[in-house]
Model the fold of this input.
Amino acid sequence: MIKRIIFTATLLLSFLLISAQNSNDIYNINVKTIDGKDMKLDSFKGKVVLIVNTASKCGLTPQYEGLELLYKTYKDKGFVILGFPCNQFMGQEPGTAEEIVKFCTSKYNITFPLFEKIEVNGDNTHALYVFLKTKLPLETTKNDIRWNFEKFLIDRDGVPVKRFSPKVKPAELNAEIEALLK
Done:
């Protein structure tokens, strides 16, 4: 009897994992907010979303300013930015959740949602980034996130539509965001 229950549970779990991986949108993915609360990305249904892995001690950190400007410009039209701190690139996000929030709000007046620090490459890659890298792979043999501030643009249906290099500045995304907001 116990073997049958374990077998059935394993079968069900396998089905759920395969279904989640085969999904074309981000809505079934669970994340944690910067203050540790569970959240499903279906909270952002109907919005154009920009997902960014962030860091506070990086040469690209000033992109926070441009990201906040994008957010303020388009948030009332159905746009949101989701910031995911990551410490995988030369330890450039070493802070605690509280330190990250304090830095982002005091230095850049960030008002867009921030999430729990995650890994974007390697064995412990967060499910969101496994999904994003699968849906929008690089044209090289290595499909890793290249550095802090790599960006993924998601349409109103939750489907990833474009991946941007960390070097692409937020101001360069206006036209693409506006096209998806129409």
